[in-house]
Q: What sequence folds into this?
């Protein structure tokens, strides 16, 4: 039954003459609002600045890594750094205890 309805609809549809159909799709206007155009210039020219900058960054990273490796391998720490590490750790422990006591105080009132 659906096939009969499709055939009847196709038979009753008006035919459009070929001369009224556009042969091509019209082109978009040359100046459109908000259009962004980017131009990329590929020059086979000189890239020495980029290469020098890349080599400079690589050299800094290598020297920094070597300095870190030497200091780490020597394992020498100044005395003040050891004392500071101990005092900061103890201060953190004391503040943690104080906070735990404060939280317990808040819970007692409920």
A:
């Amino acid at each position: 039954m659906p096939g009969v309805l499709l055939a009847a609809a196709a038979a009753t549809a008006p035919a459009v003459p070929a001369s009224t159909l556009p042969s091509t799709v019209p082109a978009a206007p040359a100046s459109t609002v908000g259009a962004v155009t980017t131009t990329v210039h590929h020059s086979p020219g000189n890239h020495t600045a980029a290469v020098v900058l890349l080599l400079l960054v690589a050299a800094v990273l290598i020297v920094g890594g070597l300095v870190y490796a030497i200091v780490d391998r020597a394992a020498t720490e100044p005395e003040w750094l050891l004392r500071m590490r101990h005092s900061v750790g103890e201060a953190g422990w004391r503040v943690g205890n104080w906070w735990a006591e404060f939280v317990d105080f808040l819970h007692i009132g409920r």
